Amino acid sequence: MKITNVEFVISAVKPHQYPEDALPEFALAGRSNVGKSSLINKMIMRKGLARTSSQPGKTQQLNYYRVNDSVYLVDFPGYGYARVSKAQRQQFGEMIETFLSDRKPLKMVLLIIDIRHEPSKDDCLMYDWLKHYEIPVCVVTTKADKIPKSKWDKHVKAIKQALGFRGGDRHVLFSSETGLGREALWDIINEQIEVTSEEAEETEEVSIENRG
């Protein structure tokens, strides 16, 4: 996908701060320091727009990035970092649950997991949460460049088994270093936008027929 325009829009905490232009949104969820910011920078081909940090737990809001004036990438706070206070974790959890359960422009969540490690308890809870709310999910296994190519299938299989990966969900193998998976992930995002647009049109047609 050719990137022509990218803009950091807002770090939001409350629903009234979310953008109101109804562009499709794709949220990135994952444990602290899993590489969400690096993935965003590779996806948008900008080195430093999404700030990366060696300090886990730095992202504490929903960070909105508008791409080509047509879609938002929304970076969630990382979860599972021990030094974040219990009160902060609860606050983050409530913020994300509110977003997931009530955010109409949300089209899919990209669940980011380091391919070198099995999913954490929080990863599994997030996946189950998404299934509960019937939110489309794509599991993105990052840092593929960190292990030999011959081990990719074995690691991906273990991750899917630990999550209880359901049929119909998507998976992309990704590397922010090499760009592996970038185009595949953009293809999935664009496909999801098309599918949800068609579903919305069909719903509107049914509604008009019923009113008639």
Automatic annotation (TrEMBL):
Keywords: Cell cycle, Cell division, GTP-binding, Magnesium, Metal-binding, Nucleotide-binding, Septation. Transmembrane segments: none annotated. One of its GO terms (molecular function) is GTP binding. It comes from the Bacteria. Its cofactor is Mg(2+). The keyword Oxidoreductase does not apply. One of its GO terms (biological process) is division septum assembly. Pfam families: MMR_HSR1. Signal peptide: none annotated. InterPro entries: G_ENGB_dom, GTP-bd, GTP-bd_ribosome_bio_YsxC, P-loop_NTPase. CDD domains: YihA_EngB. GO terms for cellular component: cytosol. Residues 22-195 form the EngB-type G domain. The keyword Heme does not apply. PANTHER family: ENGB-TYPE G DOMAIN-CONTAINING PROTEIN, MSS1/TRME-RELATED GTP-BINDING PROTEIN. Belongs to the TRAFAC class TrmE-Era-EngA-EngB-Septin-like GTPase superfamily. EngB GTPase family. Necessary for normal cell division and for the maintenance of normal septation. This is Probable GTP-binding protein EngB. It comes from Paenibacillus montanisoli. The gene is engB.
